[in-house]
Amino acid sequence: MKKTKLALAVALSAGLLAGCDFDVGPDSGSDGGGSEGGGSTPTSAVVGPLWNFEDASGASTQAIGLPNVYVFDGTNLKYYDDDATPNVYEIKVTPYTDDAEAGEITFTYYDEAGTGSEVSGTYTVDNGVLTVDTASEGVLIGADDTSNADIKAAVDAANADAGFNNYVQIIDTLDTDTGELRLKLSDIDLDPITSGKLTVDLVYQEDEDSIGDANSKNAYISFYASGTSTINMHGEIALEAGKIKYRDNNKALVEIVGSYEEGEELKIEANWDDGVFNFKVNDVEHSYAPNEIPENAPVEIIAIRLGDNGSTNNYEVLADNLEVYSNDSGSETLVFNDNFDGYAVGTVLNSSPYNNNSSEAVVVGDTPVEPADPVDPVDPPEEGDVTDDFESYTAGTLISDASSDWKTYNILDDEFGTTTAEVSNAKSNGGTQSLFLEDKNTDNKPFATRAFAAESAAGSVSIDAYFPSTNTKSTYINVGVGKNNSDRYFELNQSGTQLKYEAGDSDVKISDIVQDQWYTVTLAWTAEGKFTVSLDGQVIASDIDQASTGLTTTNIPTQLTLYTGDNGSNVNTAYFDNLASDLF
């Protein structure tokens, strides 16, 4: 992405129609949303709220400071305490397990002295109260303090200080559906809103990693009354190629005076009432004429959408800090908000609180704090236990010629250009030499692979990597059974300033990086197919389920594969050094 993870936040992903009718019935139930990108497994009721176990009434019993709160994100528990400095939270991160169907949970509970211990028990969530019946601590009762402005502000500040910032990425790579984040008010027990307001932070830009067709389609923020057809809209904002538009009662998209830059962070606000719809995109404002509103009725569904049902595109919508207000009680009241920091990176937003017709809306962002006890990790190689530092070879030699332990593929010098995977003395991390991969061929890309001593259902591999800022395409590190896409078991993808893992239509970002410097990248996996990824010894992602990546689960790793570039460009290079593992 051109825009690094906004310090703002937009939390919607609504699959939009570029100028088409979208007549699919009153609930759009046939639009197919939610069928891709990870299924529609319901989110556990413990995920998201700020749970306060100190006082189930929701009011802190502390004379000084704020109550300590727990946030479950689907993978890790974040514990916020202000014991050191009143009103200033510090964060502890630990993994937890939650069987939502059985109503059983295991997590770290902190006593009054701040000592953490693992507790297990059955749980229920009812009317904003979490009750956990444990053997060791008795019955724990937690109140949902999300509506406490002081607690929420302190949590947000702690997240910002720690570098936590999640948001939603919406893409459109399905020719059967739009990309969409849909919020249906009745799904979260809210009445239709006659007079209301929405605010959201949003970026609309080309997605350099997209597998969609190279075309720009509109992004939309849509407000529906009695159905999800264009004739049911109370209003709609559309963005395309720097132009700002709105949908009128003739189903037409009408351009207004004003513009935006692709990749620009946009502050968007929309207001509606009986006979009223107006909006702002940064400083650009527009109001509907009363007779332009397609359906002048209370709003029941809000959607952030991208693209259309008949094609794909290579753009993305990034959204954060979604807020919905109602004035129906006589005063402006916040009735829904989401900054997406309460979800684990990679969460597919097609279940509560969002509607199951959402499609290709996935939580991305930053979670830099290392879990105190990663789930079932495999110990990385001991420091100094290096399998290959490339120092014993002659610079300029193809690595497969220098060592029979290595194999290379697609090493070319033809009419399309050159590729190589050779020993280099241009850069190194601790010595004088490294492994250099270069893709200067517009028809192919180079591979270097090294086989394990045996099939490895569990293991760990560490390698130093240097990603130049001159690259325009990705560099990859994977374990699997061969070099082909179908041979991969787990794959990391470095693209620009992001490190991701392969996950089908939408790769999952797990860290921001700085180009033109060395990183030690470690992949560790268990026999249960759970992966942990570390950078420079710091865990950046844990408990990644291999089965969720879309790669073949039977490709039990037999080798490490490195490659860079693609089959169309000729600009990529990458350096690797200090390969370490006991698997070789």
**What is the radius of gyration computed over CA atoms, rounded to a whole number of angstroms?**
25 Å
Helix content: under 10%
Task: Give the number of helices.
Answer: 2
Q: Termini, distance in Å?
A: 36 Å
CATH topology name of the largest domain: Jelly Rolls
Number of strands: 38
- Provide the number of structural domains: 3
Which structural class do you get from the secondary structure elements?
mainly beta
Q: Please name the CATH architecture of the largest domain.
A: Sandwich
Question: Helices, strands, pairings?
Answer:
Blueprint: E1 51-52, E2 69-72, E3 76-85, E4 88-95, E5 97-99, E6 104-110, E7 116-126, E8 129-134, E9 139-144, H1 149-162, E10 165-171, E11 179-184, E12 196-206, E13 219-224, E14 233-240, E15 243-247, E16 253-259, E17 266-273, E18 276-281, E19 284-287, E20 301-306, E21 315-326, E22 333-338, E23 361-366, H2 399-402, E24 406-409, E25 413-414, E26 417-424, E27 434-441, E28 447-451, E29 459-466, E30 475-480, E31 488-495, E32 498-501, E33 508-512, E34 518-525, E35 530-535, E36 538-545, E37 559-564, E38 572-580
Antiparallel strand pairs: 1-9, 2-3, 3-4, 5-6, 6-7, 7-8, 8-9, 10-21, 10-23, 11-20, 12-17, 12-21, 13-14, 13-20, 14-15, 15-16, 17-18, 18-19, 21-22, 24-28, 25-26, 26-27, 27-38, 28-37, 29-34, 29-38, 30-31, 30-37, 31-32, 32-33, 34-35, 35-36
